[in-house]
Structures are given as C-alpha cells and as structure tokens.
Amino acid sequence: MKLTQIIEEKYETVKEKSITELKRNTLILDKLCELFIDLKERFKTDPLESKRSIENHIRKASFSYEPWDITNFCFALPAFEKWKNFESYTGYFLSSLINVHQEKTENEQEYLLVTKHLQKKIAYLGYENKSKLIIDGSVDSYFGKCNEGYVLINGDANLYCGIYMNDGEIRLKNADLYLGYFMNSGNIICEGNASSYVGYDMSNGGIIIKGNCGDDLGYDMRNGAIHIQGNAGKGIGAGMEGGFIHIEGEYESLKENIRGGIVFHKGKQIVPKKYLRESQEASEKKLQKMRENDEKNKINSEYLKYFSSRDR
C-alpha cells in the first residue's frame, strides 16, 4: 500500500471523527476560524515576534479542541490564502495549536496536518514541535525549527528544513537548500534528493540522503554524521571542523580548507588521507546508532512500509 493511500485513509477517518464531534459541538470549527481571524487582526507585525503571544491567546481560549479538530481546520484554510503573510502566519498558528494542545495532554498525541489541497505552501510548520506530526503535502521554508518530535512529511521541504533541530526525527521526500542548518541533534532522513549546503554548520545529529545532494556538503560542519547514498556535488567539507561524511556514489570535488573531520568515499577514507582505524570504527558506530534510532523512532510502521517497497 502506498504512503499517500495510507494517509488518505487516515484523514478520511479523521474527517469522519470531526463530523461526529461537530454534531455534538458544532462550534469548534467556527471558533478555530474566529480565533485564526482575530489573532491575524491583532498581530499585523512580524508573526515571529508575536508567536509567544499567539500561544498565550490560544491557551486562554474559552473552548477546547482535539487533534482531529486541527486536521479539520486545515480544510478551511483555502478561504484565507489571499491574506498577506498567509504562509508564515498560518504556520505559526498551526504550530501553536499543536504545542498548546500537547502541553495540556498527559499522553503523547499524534497530529495530522493536510496541506496538499492548498495553492500556497505553509512556512514555519512544526515550530518547537515535541509531538508526533504527519504532514500530507509539501511545506515551505523553516520547517521543524527547534524540532524535538518525530515528523513524517508526505512531500518536499523548502529552505532550512530542520533548522536548529534539537532532537527527534524528520523524514521527508526531497529537500531544498540548507537541510539541517545549524542542527544540534536528532536525525533527518531524506528519501529522495537534497539541494546544496546539507548539514551547514551542524553541531551534532545525523542526516541520511537516500538520493543525490548538491554542492557544499558539510559546509562549516562541526560534528555529527552525514550519509549520502547517491552522488554529491563540488566543494565538499568547506570549513569542516569535525564529524563524519559518507558518500556512496560519486562526487565532484573536495574543498581545500577542510580543517577537521573524516570523509569517506565508497567506504574508503579520503580525508584526512592518513587512514585512522579508530576514526573508521567511530564513524561506523555513529552510522549504526543512526540506523537504530531510525528503527526506534518510527512514527507508525504502516507509514514506512511504503519506503521499503517503493523501488520494488
């Protein structure tokens, strides 16, 4: 069964649950829309500066909502797409709805956001996320900023996906520039291709690209591990100070100013040129830990069956 089919079945069930819930309380969706409009009117400045205030107003709301109400609200978003700053404001609002609901709930929740029906991609989704989050659709820039949860994106991500990521896992199809920018911990798994500057200034964590990546891989990388199963571009390791880079395919060129770290090509150490067995062992342990975390932190095994059978 394909991932898209699994997700479609999941949010069809969510929609049914929402309809049942709305029969008991027909005001929830209207109240979410009213709150969305009200906060947009209140915060005409940069949404980034007012995110805390948005969350505080949601905490003070006079009604309660459940995860399926957030999913249901996604289907109302096309009515607001003409708004100025729709992409960033909507991302902060949805992220705040999830964060506030999770902090009020003792058990870990799973949230589903549907975005593939929108003409515009939403930015800043998953901001400070600590939950299990599924996105059905592609996302705009700054996805998963400071993320600590486990995220599955049934689509692609724009610039700076996983920026300042602190823990957890993000799994997606394809990524634009600066995947894992200033990443501190956690894992990012890209099932397709990634653009340039993968792992820019990352201090820890792991990134796996199952396809190809662009130029300047590991730029200013300080620690962590990057595993490229396909090909890599030019300028690998520019300013690199630590960490491990593995390239299974071909690469165009290395940067001359690599100051530290280890680079492997098809299992052979190429930076530094002097082979260090302890470096190889440390790198293999790092990759094994990434694989173990990949198994341990799966959001839902059904969702990931698609990835293992996609190329069959």
If you had to describe this structure to a student in words, what would you say it looks like?
With 312 residues, the protein is α/β, with parallel strands linked by helices. It has 7 helices and 10 strands. Helix 2 (28-42) packs across helix 4 and helix 3 (51-59) crosses helix 5. The radius of gyration is 21 Å and the shape is elongated. Residues 300-312 have low confidence and may be disordered.
What's the layout of helices and strands?
Layout: H1 3-24, H2 28-42, H3 51-59, H4 67-74, H5 86-103, E1 110-114, E2 132-136, E3 150-153, E4 169-172, E5 187-190, E6 206-209, E7 225-228, E8 244-247, E9 262-265, E10 268-271, H6 277-296, H7 301-309
Parallel strand pairs: 1-2, 2-3, 3-4, 4-5, 5-6, 6-7, 7-8, 8-9
Antiparallel strand pairs: 9-10
Helix pairs in contact: 1-4, 2-4, 3-5
Keywords:
312 residues, alpha/beta, 2 domains, 7 helices, elongated
Write a concise synopsis of the structure shown.
The protein has helices at 3-24, 28-42, 51-59, 67-74, 86-103, 277-296, 301-309, and strands spanning 110-114, 132-136, 150-153, 169-172, 187-190, 206-209, 225-228, 244-247, 262-265, 268-271.
